[in-house]
Specification:
- The chain is built from two helices and ten strands, in the order E-E-E-E-E-E-E-E-E-E-H-H.
- It has one domain.
- The chain starts with 11 loop residues before the first strand and ends in an 8-residue tail after the last helix.
- The longest helix has 23 residues.
Length: about 180
């Protein structure tokens, strides 16, 4: 009987669970998993995982980023970015390596350098503030136009409708990415 070795790298330090909406800035050492809705900015020395059910509208700066859900924003990964087949990505990815499974839907700007040395660091303070303010304005506008509140699930409905609209834009004429 084999034992599973638990290392610090495999431990989930923080999680935004299903049905949870979080807006703000998170900094941590280790692994963060998002299975709910996140809006803002993330900074981790370890990994960030956007699960298949997760939706993120944010800036991410981490060692490794794995995206399986819907992501809109900016990613800076010091090691690599992994896009699972269920991923929908709209935004900017800057990393030495990019791994994408068959079926990923993506559009945006991609800077894949092959080495960390050639990858410029983002101006995270200014960008973090801009993304957070933009996120707040978007959520407030969506709530005001629909008259829905977070208590009745209106915010989740608006986010789902917004993601569906973005997905329709990404698909293009033949269902493939036409970069």
């Amino acid at each position: 009987m084999g034992s599973r070795r638990v290392t610090e790298e495999n431990l989930i330090n923080s999680i935004v669970g299903p049905g949870t909406f979080f807006r703000g800035h998170i900094e941590l050492d280790g692994l963060l998993r998002v299975d709910g809705d996140f809006s803002g900015s993330l900074k981790s020395t370890g990994r960030v995982i956007i699960g298949r059910a997760g939706r993120a509208d944010c800036a991410i700066e981490a060692g490794t980023v794995v995206i399986g859900g819907v992501f809109r924003g900016e990613v800076f990964a010091a090691e690599k970015v992994v896009l699972l087949s269920s991923a929908v990505v709209i935004g900017t990815i800057r990393s030495p390596r990019l791994v994408a499974e068959d079926g990923v839907l993506l559009t945006g700007l991609f800077e894949i350098t092959g080495s960390v040395e050639r990858l410029g660091r983002p101006d995270s303070r200014a960008r973090k503030k801009d993304l957070l303010l933009e996120s707040v304005r978007t959520r407030e506008a969506a709530g005001a136009s629909s008259g829905a509140s977070a208590h009745d699930g209106g915010a989740q409905h608006d986010a789902a409708a917004e993601s569906s609209a973005d997905l329709a834009t990404v698909r293009g004429g033949d269902g493939e990415w036409n970069g």
